[in-house]
Write a structure and sequence with these properties.
The chain is mainly α. The chain is built from 10 helices and no strands.
């Protein structure tokens, strides 16, 4: 009997240890799987936001390109090469003319190529901002007296700048070859058949470094632009929630319209719109940024991602 009791207790102990080990193992793996899933959801939300915002302003993007082509033709040849250029005189008139001559599809011509570039850029940008803001806040809280500090507009500006650098670096080769495809003519020495073909050709004929020609000026230009977008949007949201000037309940979320207004305000302070010079581009920047921010948060809500930018 004694030996049986010993065997029984030993078996029970082994079983308990095995169960504890299993629980511990699952406890280690679960957060890793959860973190990976959260990252994927965040990237998907950022990509969808970029695609939705770019598609929403695709007609204005098409009109801007048509106007730019006409302007360049006039500068180089002394005359407008497009016989219909006069029809593009004015944003509304231009959009009406495209609709009348090319139909609905004409307004969105080239949007697929634009989305192929903007979707990964937007995905990386939003995710990078979240990670950069957490890292910057952690470093800031390591300073004496800042243990309970929250994100400030300056810290958000820094996080946005980091996000802009990372996103630009990650997708710059696509921007480079897209630019080459845009300016190539029938007389160009190299004829690119598309983004993939252009990437392979540049990599084979010019080497990996060629894919990052002009990277530094582009990054310098995007730092204040993206930084200000995030800083203004997040700071405005934070101020509205904390001050509650419109009688918001304690746990109430800002409405979509209010978030769109915050995004529109963020779009008005981007340096990029000041240097483009064309009305269609200036008009599209504000709604594009507003839609991108709101789409990102809406998709994250739908996907059930707990983490928020402001967190």
């Amino acid at each position: 009997m004694a030996s049986e009791d010993v065997v029984g207790k030993t078996s029970a102990t082994i079983a308990n240890l095995a169960e504890e080990a299993k629980i511990a193992s699952e406890g280690v793996k679960a957060p890793s799987r959860h973190a990976l899933l959260s990252i994927c959801k965040s990237l998907v939300a950022g990509g969808v936001a970029g695609g939705v915002s770019r598609t929403a302003v695709a007609p204005l993007e098409r009109l801007k390109i048509l106007l730019q082509v006409d302007h360049l033709s006039f500068c180089f040849h002394g005359q407008v090469q497009n016989p219909h250029a006069i029809k593009y005189n004015g944003t509304v008139q231009g959009l009406k003319y495209i609709w009348r001559t090319e139909g609905f599809r004409g307004l969105f011509k080239g949007n697929g190529t634009n989305c192929a570039r903007i979707v990964p850029n937007s995905a990386v940008k939003f995710f990078s901002y979240e990670e950069a803001s957490k890292g910057i806040l952690w470093l800031y809280r390591q300073q004496p007296g800042n243990e309970d500090a929250e994100l400030t507009p300056v810290l958000r500006l820094g996080a946005g700048a980091c996000a802009g650098i990372i996103a630009m670096s990650a997708t710059y080769p696509m921007d480079l070859v897209r630019g080459r495809i845009t300016v190539q003519t029938d007389k160009s020495s190299t004829q690119y058949r598309g983004i993939t073909h252009a990437l392979r050709t540049v990599l084979r004929e010019e080497g990996p470094r060629a894919l990052y020609k002009g990277w530094l000026p582009s990054v310098i230009g995007v730092i204040p632009y993206v930084g200000l977008n995030f800083a203004v949007y997040e700071s405005l949201k934070d101020w509205l929630i904390k001050s509650r000037p419109y009688g918001l309940a304690e746990d109430a979320e800002l409405s979509v319209v209010t978030k769109l207004a915050c995004g529109a305000a963020a779009g008005t302070v981007g340096f990029g719109a000041l240097y483009k010079g064309l009305v269609p581009n200036s008009v599209k920047v504000v709604p594009s940024i507003a839609i991108a921010f709101v789409s990102y948060e809406v998709v994250k809500d739908l996907l059930g991602v707990e983490m928020r930018i402001s967190d």
